[in-house]
Amino acid sequence: MSIGYPSTMLAAALAASVGATAVAPAAAQEAKPWYKRAWDPANVKPCDRQCLVRIGEAYLLALQTKDLTSLPFAEQVVATENTGKIDIGTGLFWRARIQPTDFKITVADPVQGQIAFQSVLTIDGAPALTAIRLRVERNMITEVEHMYDRDVAPEAMELLRRPRPELLADVPEDKRLSREYLTYAAESYFDALTGEDGSIAPFADDCDRHEQGYQTVNHPTPSRASPSPRLPDPSTELGRFFLKLSTMTCAEQIDTGVFGGIKRIWPRRTLVVDQQKGLVATFPFFVHDGVRHVDTPPRIAGMERPQNGAGMVTNLTTMETFGIRDGKIQEVEAFPFVLIPYGGSDGWTQPSTN
Known about the structure:
Keywords: Signal. The protein contains 6 helices and 16 strands.
């Protein structure tokens, strides 16, 4: 003999069952990231410059708090630190105590979906030169690049307290240059270095280059022409050469052939173009093979640079930010310098010694 539910009880049970099956999928959907849920046209949102800056600033804050939960990471994220592959949440930046300073240059490119920060951070209580690049696709972080140099001499700090105001200011809308112009101008800087010809790039006469925190060009009186805490020794021929070099313009320095030890600058990876600020951030890869790649040594007004053996045999990558206004390269900010063994790579492209 079978025992059945009264019709009213059966109807209530069926209703509860149907309700449960309807609610469960909705709850499950909410637990998924947006890109794993049912299609919703509302998720199709552009990420303009303001959006990129918001995501970038959230990332910088997360480095300080060590809380990743609010960051919009994609399902797969490629990340490097000083050219080595890392997992998100590992590496120096995610393990050390991080504090911001007043030195931060922001370059945001909504066309390519990239943002780069060139900044001085306090890492475990000491200043460090840092660069951070993020790629954002569909409002999610898909690439993270960290670079740092913690060997910062006190002599460098004078120009590392705050960025030059020109690198922070907006360019008036009627004076903004096209992406193509900004890109060509930034690329021409590296063409000039390897071509030993300052006329290849559109340098302003008062172009001011800072490397690792040191002004290395256009000094009113003889000073540094290389990023070093030590001043050139005027009692030596090499010291006098560099003292003279320090008073030259960006173009004049290149004309001397002093950069002839660079075998190539390639790849010139990732041009982050910020039309609003008139900035281009680059991540070039310098290859030095110990050979001078020009026929004659550098000369300055009849002064011949002493030949002091082989040059560097190393690779170097960095972040170089160009301030380009009125059609000219006005500022160059280059740091941090990350040295890599010769034959190594930048972590994003295949190495080559050809």
